[in-house]
Amino acid sequence: MKLTEEPDIVNWAETHYVFIEKTGPFMSIAPQAWQELHSNIPEIAAKNQIAHFLSLYKGGANIYRAGVSLAAPPLELPAGLQYEKLRGGRYSRFVLTGPYSDLPEASGRVWQLAGEKQIPVREDFAIENYVNDPRTTPEADLITEILVPTA
Length: 151
Known about the structure:
The chain contains two helices and nine strands. With 151 residues, the protein is an alpha+beta fold. Strands 1, 2, 3, 4, 5, 6, 7, 8 and 9 form a nine-stranded antiparallel β-sheet that branches. The mean pLDDT is 96.
């Protein structure tokens, strides 16, 4: 697994976020959330400009959101999707290069590193920002930013 172990600090901008939210064990709910989201992408994209694919999660609360950021507030959304304007903020960014199947292990390692490095974590959602497109990028070259909300 190719994961940076020294985070850099980034300021995440306010974001228009459209998502499917699920609660429960991430290994079972994350694939369901993404499947539902992907089935709605054509309808979302018909009236909105999609900027990025993101997931937000709170591990302790077992809340997982699969979603997209938009260039502007949504015009119309399919039933079952939620919208929130994320306020942004300060995050410690770790970067995984490689297949999405490495994400559970990478996320676990990131939280272990946050503890070891005594990163002051604030109560907020963590973010996984999927930087490149898995339809056109080889698995070994996929880049995912794992962002830990930092006080």
